[in-house]
Amino acid sequence: MTPDPLDALRGVCSRLKFAPLPEITSLAELHGRQADGVQQHSVTSMTDHGWIPVLFDKLRTEHGPGHRLPAATNFLRVTLREPVFMAAASLYLTGRGPLFTPDTLHLPWDTVRSRFGTPVVTDVRTAVLPDDPAAGHPDTVLARDEDEQLRLTAEGLFATFEPLIDALHAHSRAGKRTLWGWVLDTLHFYMLNPARYLGRDAEQAWELATRLGDAVVAAGAVTRKRPRLFPFAPDHPRGTWAVRGTCCFDYKGDPEHGFCTTCPLKCDSERREDLTEWLRDPALAP
Predict the structure, then answer these.
(1) Edge-to-edge strands of the sheet including 140-142?
(2) What is the Cα 48 distance to its own chain's centre?
């Protein structure tokens, strides 16, 4: 029997400490659920019916942050974190690329708590290589080689995220380079994090992330600067971290917190000191 192309992803993610996958189901199952105060918005319906300004303002009013820039990147975090992780981790850990569309990514809004729930992906198809055991599965698309697989995955990401980012940019006035920068940074980190946790080659993971990032940019994404690797303890298996290319502006919403450890605005000497301390005592890491 041809294996389900997503079974391998579920299996390997069960071994990770941090694996924020979206819920994966069918559209029929999703439509058959009782509402229970949850509005199910696909990216298409959310953008076509003008929901993003409404939900952005509600989320910001109820939960903050008050500053529009960290509020904009937080909006991406609560809507796109799981799909970004799924794309990055699937390619890196299983060699398969999920193909998102604006109609198959759903963002559930909890009307009681005024917040988004875990994103839902329905009837997702997967780009696989010719020698993949799942190549004959009806939910797969056959790519000729890795370059085409990355291109197909990246084009699906861009087509799905761009309508949301465009509407968020128009309403929040956060720059599209900032918003796409968050996506590209997170794609890189979500290949690096599993590599570090599993004791794999960080540079190899980063190389694949860079290739995927290049493909997303080729599809139409814009950014000022890409993230970079930051080896702070080269002799340790987890002694490599990274620096974001784009600031998420969390410090503007919480000035007492200051710059994040991965922030491009933080000086490398302080970053190295923090990371080394975390390596000695992981309980100190945020």
Answers:
(1) 97-99, 125-128, 140-142
(2) 23
- CA–CA distance, 168 with 91 (Å, rounded to integer): 27
Dihedral sign, Cα of residue 233, residue 235, residue 237, residue 243: positive
22 contact partners, CB below 8 Å, separation of at least 6: 82, 83, 86, 105, 118, 119, 120, 121
What are the Cα distances from residue 82, in Å, to 22, 50, 162, 242, 255? 5, 23, 16, 20, 27
- Taking a C-beta distance cutoff of 8 angstroms, is the pair 94, 9 a contact? yes
d(CA 4, CA 120): 18
The answer to whether 80 and 196 are in contact (CB under 8 A) is no
**Residue 17: is it exposed, middle or buried by C-beta count within 10 angstroms (0-12/13-18/19+)?**
exposed
Task: Tell me whether strands 23-25 and 120-122 are parallel, antiparallel or unpaired.
Answer: parallel
C-alpha to C-alpha distance for 39 and 43, rounded to whole angstroms: 12
Whole-model pTM?
0.96
User: Whole-angstrom distance between the N-terminal and C-terminal Cα of the chain?
Assistant: 44
**Separation CA 228–CA 240 (nearest Å):** 11
- List the CATH code of the domain at 7-225: 1.10.510
Rounded Cα–Cα distance for residues 10 and 93 (Å): 10
CA dist., res. 274 & res. 16, Å (int): 23
Residue-wise pLDDT tens digits, 42-99: 999 999 999 999 999 999 999 999 999 999 999 999 999 999 999 999 999 999 999 9
* Residue carrying the six token digits 């659920």: 33
Rg of the Cα trace of the chain? Answer: 19
Q: What one-character DSSP code corresponds to residue 53?
A: H
CA distance 4 to 7: 6
